[in-house]
Design brief:
single chain, about 425 residues, alpha/beta, Aminopeptidase, Glucose Oxidase, domain 1, four-stranded antiparallel β-sheet, 12 helices, about 25% strand, elongated
Amino acid sequence: MSKVISNSKEGLQIYKWAKQIFKFNRSLTGSGTVETLNFIKKKLPNFQIKKIKSGTKVYDWTIPSEWNVKKAYIEDLKGNKLINFKDNNLHLVGYSTPVNKVIQFKDLKKRLHTIKNMPNAIPYRYSYYTKDWGFCLQHNKLKKFKDKKYRVVIDSSLKKGNMYYGEILIKGKSSKEILLSTYICHPSMGNNEVSGPVLLTRLAKYLLSIKNLHYSYRLIFVPETIGAITYINKNYKILKKNVVAGYIVSCVGDNNSYSYLETKEKNSLSDKIAKTAFKLKNLKFKNYSFLQRGSDERQFNSPGVNLKIGSIMRTRHGAYKEYHTSLDNLDFISPSGFQGAYDIYTYVFDLLEKNRVYKNLIIGEPFLAKYKLRSDTIGTGFNKSFLNISNICAYLDGNIDLIDLSKLLSLNFYEVVKIIKILKHNKIIKMIS
């Protein structure tokens, strides 16, 4: 892997994909989620789409019924539609049960969701595990309702079916894996979460183009929470055995900021690599504690799992006012936002691939002059280059990786990598992991 060079065409391509899947009615289950997975499979032929039946127990959870919607609206008794699912699928509360009845406004109002201080935004609401129904609308539109009767129609179905998810394993020389996960259950919101699936799809193409990867990379596209729990349940042994680091790919399309959400450990390989990447790229970022978690890092760091998965994001979920509303739209995300996220992730991959652990093959201090790595003239002193080589050799005992070594010696990571190549060439050291 070579040092990553930014290419603005990547951001444009990812943004184009975001526009193409934006209106799919994604949820925990249903046709919109399947459409999204099929879209990804067209980009990644080796991508596998899998399913698990409704009602299946996964740890403390149960796979929900499959939910689909044909139409949903509220109209007055003259047939004038005031809210229509066709206009924006955020108008319908996720997992709403079927309804077809005339109702008084005083009763209907209890099922209408708005945000008073964001009068032009449609909120995103859902009722996955409780049978209920409702509509979401701009607070400004609520004023158009009068104290009279309205017809409510929700032509939806909740039945035993399947929950779908997807994955691709890109094999490297090692069986040790980097896990990358995103979620496919949020409808018609740009940063959260059209951005994750499209960026991760492009990152998969990038990883597939790299020859001689050291790590294997496991990329999964799952419904949030229940999908991650299900995936862990079905793949627990292999994940515990092989995964050494990873990230939740979420909220990666806006152009406002960068964020990192730590693992519980705070200094795991995931944490060290991500923070080093931001530092070396000279990017300001906001660091969040695991106590501020909000996505599937919850599941992968949960007790008994503890996979030490962090989250590299642009603006963190919940930290921008447009979050979980219709204002998180295609104008909120951008090609440049995607480009920045693409660049930091590919840089992270480069660091992961180069961050190895080495051990000296020589007992005692190597005679560096023998390898023309220092002058053997008496009294010339130690120049900086020799000191760096000598210090690196002094710590290569098989117990420190190059990220920690670069910090210990206050050296640029890539300067350490350069010296490691020289030492390897001269057969002074060997890689042990």
